[in-house]
Amino acid sequence: MTDATTTGAAAVDTAAEERTGAALGTASTDQARMVEQTIGRIAQWRGRQISYAPVFGGLMNSNWRVRVDEEDFFVKIPGPGSEAFIDRDTTHIAAMRAGEAGISARHVAYFPDKGIEVIEFLDGYRACTNGDMKRPDILASVLRVQSAFHGIQPLPSTKTMLDMVDEHRVQAAQLKVTMPANFAGLRISPPAHDRR
After folding, report:
1. What percent of the chain is helix, strand and coil (3-state, nearest 5)?
2. What is the SS3 string spanning 107-119?
3. Beta strands 107-111 and 62-68: pairing type?
4. What is the rounded CA–CA span in Å between residue 28 and residue 42?
5. 120 burial class (0-12, 13-18, 19+ CB within 10 angstroms)?
6. pLDDT digits (tens, 9 = 90+) for 111-147
7. What whole-number distance in Å separates Cα of residue 38 and Cα of residue 109?
């Protein structure tokens, strides 16, 4: 691996981030308590020196950097309600396979009851931005990683972007979301359930 801009791994720019954080037993928020509960579920971490701190920048997840002795890990706690839009089990399988293929961070633990993932922390990396994608070297790297990922065993569940749009349209209707007046004219395909 070279950096997160080429691996697509969940990572952040950490150059200025502190390496120390809250000690176990000091959680003051629900998310921090969930991090502490997650830490307690990992048997090989018991009895070790542990601290944790939030990693900012996630859209739906609460992300944390956990230091165990001198090693750092990334803990991803799904945001409330995100399971309606994200298949956490399939996401986990994809992350594991990408890690095994050497194109993502190494998998450490997964707790399917909460959808929580723990992976190695890629220090000094950051997420790829739209601006990065304008650089030919980064774009070529991303395409190499994408090609490598498409060479791994197929995932148990797949859907196209159009399937996802249709799925979200159905979810919005179920939640009685008011759609824009011109929404019906914007739809370019019948819902996925009508195509089967």
Report:
1. 40, 15, 45
2. EEEEECCCCEEEE
3. unpaired
4. 21
5. middle
6. 999 999 999 999 888 878 889 999 999 999 999 999 9
7. 10
> In this prediction, what percent of the chain has a pLDDT beyond 70?
84
Q: Which residue has the higher pLDDT, 19 or 78?
A: 78
Q: How far is CA 31 from the centre of its chain?
A: 16
45: DSSP letter: G
Tokens 């959808």 map to which residue? 115
Q: How far apart are CA 44 and CA 58, in angstroms?
A: 27
CATH 3.30.200.20 fits 4-150, yes or no: yes
- At 8, the amino acid letter reads G
Where are the chain's structural domains? 4-150, 161-195
Query: How would you write 14-36 as a 3-class SS string?
Result: CCCCCCCCEECCCCCCHHHHHHH
Q: Provide the edge-to-edge strand list for the sheet that holds 50-55.
A: 22-23, 50-55, 62-68, 71-77, 116-120, 107-111
